[in-house]
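Hi all, posting the design record for the shared folder.

TITLE: backbone redesign
STEP: 1 of 1
STRUCTURE INPUT:
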């Protein structure tokens, strides 16, 4: 098979990184993979970095501050050198032992992405409830065809990420973004383990951000290349309402009624026409902006402090 890059964002996981690295290393050696392990420290305030520097082999990417899981994952993916990229959480709830069967499923079914499905989750009741609600909304809005987009354990072909930049909480919606681009996505049930060290990083703020990004993915799917279809269509709808109100006003005028007593219809006419024209103009401007977006480089929303390669001989900085 092709080489394997295992990408793991970590934040304040001093109690998990050593054992997780050992588990990944054992799986890769047992299956004779050509591999690299990439940990991305997202501004940890505990001893995560110090412990990581004792692990070999490992490529450690250090962010300058806490930019979030999506930014850390994007940095790790961009640093990956092999043809298969595996992403997973740093809390040891994802099981590295699932990696071989996911790769086999990807190859046997000629897929570009295989997403893990935590069918039997080992989380708190509130976290399971929130996740199921989010998955229900995602199914209605995004239509990516998978049960558990929040599972970080996924296998990708490296070509999936050519020209793809991740923002916000979009790591949850990578399969949806890739499906929009025409990549094939599959899903397989994976093991999910209870957290044994550290504390969860999920809270209500991340839930809200995830919902907003879900709307962003929906818009990207429907109107990214042609925003004029949305804004221009809405603008024409308002102009149509203005036209109807204009006819209403004209009928009142012809009937001989005093317009001073019926000022509401003319005001509605003016309001709807102005809103409609503005939306249509915004649609045209958005169309131009999207064409500019597709033709220019987008600045990275995060900054990398250092990249350290740790081997049995020691650690050295390889940041370019």
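Okay, here is what came back for every position:
SEQUENCE:
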């Amino acid at each position: 098979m092709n080489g394997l890059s295992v990408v793991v964002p970590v934040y304040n996981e001093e109690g998990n990184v050593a054992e997780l690295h050992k588990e990944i290393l054992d799986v890769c050696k047992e299956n004779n993979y050509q591999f690299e392990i990439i940990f991305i420290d997202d501004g940890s305030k505990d001893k995560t970095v110090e412990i990581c520097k004792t692990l070999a082999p490992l490529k450690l990417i250090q962010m300058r501050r806490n930019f979030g899981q999506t930014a850390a994952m994007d940095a790790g993916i961009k640093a990956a050198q092999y043809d298969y990229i595996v992403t997973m959480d740093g809390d040891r709830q994802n099981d590295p032992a699932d990696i071989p069967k996911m790769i086999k499923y990807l190859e046997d079914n000629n897929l570009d992405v295989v997403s893990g499905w935590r069918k039997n989750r080992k989380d708190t009741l509130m976290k399971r409830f929130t996740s199921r609600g989010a998955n229900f909304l995602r199914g209605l809005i995004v239509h990516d065809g998978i049960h558990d987009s929040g599972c970080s354990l996924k296998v990708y072909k490296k070509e999936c990420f050519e020209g793809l930049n991740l923002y916000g909480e979009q790591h949850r919606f990578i399969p949806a973004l890739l499906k929009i681009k025409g990549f094939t996505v599959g899903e397989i049930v994976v093991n999910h383990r209870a957290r044994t060290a550290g504390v969860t990083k999920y809270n209500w703020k991340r839930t809200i951000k995830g919902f907003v990004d879900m709307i962003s993915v929906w818009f990207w799917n429907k109107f990214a290349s042609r925003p004029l279809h949305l804004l221009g269509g809405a603008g024409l709808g308002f102009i149509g309402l203005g036209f109807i109100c204009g006819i209403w006003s004209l009928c009142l005028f012809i009937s001989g009624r005093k317009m001073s007593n019926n000022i509401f219809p003319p005001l509605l006419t003016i309001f709807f026409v102005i809103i409609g024209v503005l939306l249509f103009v915004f649609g045209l401007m958005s169309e131009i902006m999207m064409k500019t977006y597709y033709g220019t480089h987008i600045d990275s929303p995060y900054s990398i402090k250092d990249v350290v390669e740790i081997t049995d001989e020691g650690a050295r900085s390889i940041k370019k």
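COMMENT: The chain has nine helices and nine strands.
Let me know if anyone wants the other runs.
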